[in-house]
């Protein structure tokens, strides 16, 4: 096996392990935590934003260090009624990539997440059924390129698991029905 194919199989193995972990989550809160943790293991900084009541609320973050405290992260809310990249991801269910300048209409995101001007940024929809139920923010955190395909796979599987968790009769459903941020 060549070093290149060994590296590719290791990366694929990492993604497979991440997907398996996502599928073990038993609540949306745990799912978002696993998602951002696994994205961080792929070399990015990540925040999962849960869509509730015309806004996307930061639910979990990994890779930002001590300047993004739990309280600061939980107070990060992005209105989805204003034309921004977050609104586009929500309304179209499509990914948006770019650099921090692309988020100029989201100054609250830029001021709290503090991406470097050279960072690549990716916003991915997390679909539960036909609706975008969450948005994954990922930036390269100064490390160069994003593992876009791997992040897309994680977002797809997170959406599938979220759909199962929110299905009628699921015990996890009650944890996401409140309009405000989780405690």
Note down, in words, how this protein is organized.
The protein has 183 residues and is of the alpha+beta class. Helices cover 40% and strands 21% of the residues. The protein has one domain (3-176): Beta-Lactamase (2-Layer Sandwich), CATH 3.30.450. It has helices at 3-22, 28-41, 70-74, 85-92, 107-113, 148-166, and strands at residues 45-52, 55-62, 77-79, 96-98, 121-128, 131-139. A hairpin with a 2-residue loop joins strand 1 (45-52) and strand 2 (55-62). The chain is globular.
Secondary structure topology:
Elements: H1 3-22, H2 28-41, E1 45-52, E2 55-62, H3 70-74, E3 77-79, H4 85-92, E4 96-98, H5 107-113, E5 121-128, E6 131-139, H6 148-166
Structural class: alpha+beta
Which strand-content bin applies to the residues?
15-25%
Question: Whole-Å distance between the termini?
Answer: 49 Å
The total number of structural domains is 1
Biggest pleated sheet: 6 strands, antiparallel
So, the CATH homologous superfamily?
Answer: GAF domain
What would you call the shape? globular
Kindly state the percentage of residues in helix: 25-40%
Task: Supply Rg.
Answer: 16 Å
Keywords:
183 residues; alpha+beta; disordered N terminus; Beta-Lactamase
Quick rundown:
This protein is α+β, with helices and mostly antiparallel strands and 183 residues long. It has six helices and six strands.
